Amino acid sequence: MMDKTLQEQFATSFLTGGSAAYIEDIYEQYLEDPTSIDDTWRQKFDQYTQEQSGEKDVAHSEIQNYFRQAGLHRSRMIAASGSGDKSFDAKQVNVLELIQAYRAHGHQYANLDPLGIWKQAKIDHLDLAKYELSKMDFETEFRTGSMFGSTSKKLKQIVEELEATYCKSIGSEFMHISDPGQKQWIQERLESSLSSPQFSSAFKKQILSALTAAEGLEKYLHNKFPGAKRFSLEGGDSLMPMLEELIQRAGSSGTKEIVLGMAHRGRLNVLVNLMGKKPEELFAEFAGKKAVEKGSGDVKYHQGFSSDINTPGGAVHVALAFNPSHLEIVAPVIEGSVRARLERRRDDTYSQVLPIVIHGDSAFTGQGVVMETFNMSQARGYKTGGTVHIVINNQVGFTTNRPDDTRSTTYCTDVAKMIEAPIFHVNADDPEAVVFVTQLALDFRTTYKKDVVIDLVCYRRHGHNEADEPRATQPIMYEKVKKHPTPRKLYADKLAEAGVIDDKYANKLSADYRDKMDDGKNVVSNWLPMKQHEFTVDWSPYLDTDWQTPAVTSLSKEAFDKLATAISTYPDELNLQSQVKRLMTDRKKMANGEIPMDWGFAETMAYASLLDDGYRVRISGQDSGRGTFFHRHAVLHDQKTGDNYQPLKNIREGQGQFHVIDSVLSEEAVLAYEYGYSTTEPRSLVIWEAQFGDFANGAQVVIDQFISSGEHKWGRLCGLVMLLPHGYEGQGPEHSSARLERFLQLCAEHNMQVCVPSTPAQVFHMLRRQMVRKWRTPLIVMSPKSLLRHRLATSQIEELTNGKFESVIDEIDNLDKAKIKRIVMCSGKVYYDLLEKRRADERDDVAIIRIEQLYPFPKHLKDVIAEYQNADEFIWCQEEPKNQGAWYSSRHNFQASVPEKGFVEYAGREASAAPATGIASKHVEEQRALVEDALGRKS
């Protein structure tokens, strides 16, 4: 710290926050060459950096704050500037502050709205008078500090260059970034070109060609199918040259795959003019003539597509994801797909696969999954090396008429500031500025491997869709839209005026495109036929199979011994917590057959066996490393060093990849992410584990729109597993039910599996079956809580080496079937309550049958029940209230399984608005009553 004398000397400082720009300029010079600045400043910077960290590169904001507090006297600043003119030196400081103001606030003055309606509030940040400057100073030369170019310029030139860079068609927001290197990189890219790219005539013609195609498709569809919904791109036509440049530039820098997500607007244009979908196929969809071999199909503006595009760096595979009407939910799906592709390529530099997500302005700022996805962007288990976000900002949220109807921030993109992503607003009527910003954004992502946002400020020429009448709610805007020339027209006129083209050239481009539409064939010149390569995934083995496809899930005794040893072994020097150490000791005993195996052992054995077979295993959830209920402990933590050891990563050399991730505190985005991963990687066991089953409520959109229906809408296979802790333990309404009824209600056409395993061996075979069987469909598991350590919920080694998953488990006690009068069917934890009560009462007239798979329903249950020829009472027992659980959704299956004259009765809680009681005593009484009701009185 400074000595007392200096503190007193600097107490009268005039330095305030307004001088931060000057300090930062001096500090920039100090970082580049400490000897280039005055000794007084150098000593202060040296002293400060040593006090903070011993390093030279300290955040500029901290430097500014330090010297504000230190109160460095004006004379020191004048000495540093090298001038004896105090008036000039004061202006010099103000000029540097003005430069910083343009960088920070220039976007608020930029010409961003093509219609000229959106006017930002006037501020004085860029007024010369604020800095005690005027036009009288225009011919005075000042130092430019960190401004790109010569070290000094006349004030007039400084202002003109700053205006051109920050206040024309591009509004750049990057001063919120804390990394000085990233800010400097953006400054130099913008200021070196004055945000005005110098494109060749040939390149400008390419831009015009892309705009012509964008407009041409929309006009063609408008005339051929008037009034049909297409969510046209018109007004945001510059999206097409933007995407073309993204693909070509990404390919040039080594990208091999691009995964693209977007909602409706402009999707048809992307499919035809970017991806190479044949117009004749699109026309057939408009005419309603496209045949769907199986499933429901989906509307044309939800459809996905894949193609290979030729670039200077070789072929780039572009995949456009299928997307439902929930506008932003595709974003985390894209990220999961990208992560799977990166891991398949073993690319830890995040260079070969690029995610691009296209948003709507109101959805981007309005839907929470956007924030959740941003939050994952740099998290270890989810990062993908940065996403290029494009906001098609048509300035109307469905029919809202003002920005303050749809958001509480200045820009719709402000949410991206939470991760310090740079944001580039650009006027969509200036396609050259759009392409320049595209290059800048992609290069930033490539350099820094973090997200970047492009706000394409445009308008929509029609309403929300083509059947809408927008003038009913936006009369002023649509009066302007009606008179406003199209982006293609504006740009063609600009090129003609500059002598790049003549009128005939533009007209011929339009005519040629119409001819291509009439022909109906592929219109993309750089489209390539897709070829198989080492990273191509073959889904053919999983087609035309069903849930009854056989699969061997048992292990040989030799394989069991090897894997059991691997999962129960850890380095001697690892200092384990006492409970974990005891658990690992027990696992060694389980491996040797000394004690029965528990849930955690059998589950871990399933993962180990799959990894040994070369499959990948990925588990994510909010407490997945150890398991919410302290049973898994896939990650062993050293209590002294903090290091960890994962036995499942040490099965053998060349094993499959294993990842267990303690996820960010999100359900919707994380589940969508894992869905995207699973649809991309059929040889990975991908598991999302809820901390409690009802946490899945927060991800219902993913379940409804993707997991339950993705295959039948879009033909997308997916083997995702959801582990949802479920069971009534007296923990209240929020931590009892995984809402089994919701999943069963969604079940049809073998779209999902819903299982309720009740033993460790069952979970072992169930998880192995999910991979070994050549059938990929989501698996929903009502996972246990108390059964993880229940004294009866154990298994023997032989059940893993000889068994299989049993969808129905018959009575296990050695009862005389001829004496059985009542059959109780159940699933899950309640089985053990029934079993213990029956044994305590020494009943021999009731058989308990477990249904371990509720969907697809096991039809052979009927054969199992038929063996009890004297039974005439049939009960379905569940813990859940009557209007929940399996009863309403599956009672027809239960009824079909009993003899013709039999009738299935219900035993369980009464119907309830809440899943469970929160009063412990009431829970115990309800549980006792339903068990007694199910077992009935002894005859």
From TrEMBL:
Cofactor: thiamine diphosphate
Top-level taxon: Bacteria
GO (cellular component) term, any one: cytosol
Any one Pfam family match given in the protein's UniProt record, by short name: OxoGdeHyase_C
Keywords carried by this UniProt record: Glycolysis, Oxidoreductase, Thiamine pyrophosphate
Keyword Secreted: no
Enzyme class (EC, first level): oxidoreductase
Domain Transketolase-like pyrimidine-binding: 597-790
EC number: 1.2.4.2
Catalytic reactions of this protein: N(6)-[(R)-lipoyl]-L-lysyl-[protein] + 2-oxoglutarate + H(+) = N(6)-[(R)-S(8)-succinyldihydrolipoyl]-L-lysyl-[protein] + CO2
GO MF annotation terms: oxoglutarate dehydrogenase (succinyl-transferring) activity; thiamine pyrophosphate binding
Stated role: E1 component of the 2-oxoglutarate dehydrogenase (OGDH) complex which catalyzes the decarboxylation of 2-oxoglutarate, the first step in the conversion of 2-oxoglutarate to succinyl-CoA and CO(2).
Record text on subunit structure and interactions: Homodimer. Part of the 2-oxoglutarate dehydrogenase (OGDH) complex composed of E1 (2-oxoglutarate dehydrogenase), E2 (dihydrolipoamide succinyltransferase) and E3 (dihydrolipoamide dehydrogenase); the complex contains multiple copies of the three enzymatic components (E1, E2 and E3).
Family stated for the protein in its record: Belongs to the alpha-ketoglutarate dehydrogenase family.
The name this protein goes by in its record: 2-oxoglutarate dehydrogenase E1 component
Native source species: Pleionea litopenaei
Taxonomic placement: Bacteria, Pseudomonadati, Pseudomonadota, Gammaproteobacteria, Oceanospirillales
